[in-house]
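May I ask for an example protein's residues together with how it folds?

___
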Amino acid sequence: MKKLKLSSPWMTYFHQVKAFFEQDRSVSVVFDDETPAIIVYVDDQEKADALSYLLPKEKKFGSLTLQVKVLPANDPNVVTTDTIANIYRTAFKNNRAFNKLIVIKGMTNDFIYVVFEKEVVQYWNDNLGDPHGLCSTLFEDLARAVIDNNDGVMFCTNNRGE
């Protein structure tokens, strides 16, 4: 008989972050048990700055505080004259899960849509409804769970296999 392994909420968040960047060759995500922290290693400085702006610096799970570190950059003053749309473009460049960014000009404000590929992504979790313990979801759902600073940006899935 197989044993069930339950995942803590912070490990669930780690698995979400890791799955979210799984298709991006310039990003790798590791978990540091000692701190505890999620460390997001980024090859490109500009992209690291953008991700540092978008991801939370920490997440609280009851009495445990999980740090989120983006390396090589973690500058909280990353937003200068760049638009929010450019931050998202930069953060997701070379990520095969990212499809496109759409900006629709509104009368009072613009609408920014980050569109992800129409693809199911799986990560290990304590999902008792799956014999393998996997959670199946879309990249747009992971974006909502992972990105802390979305500034009213909408995440969605491409409606066709383009």
Observations:
- The first strand starts at residue 27 and ends at 32.
- The chain has a mean pLDDT of 86.
- The chain has one domain: 9-157.
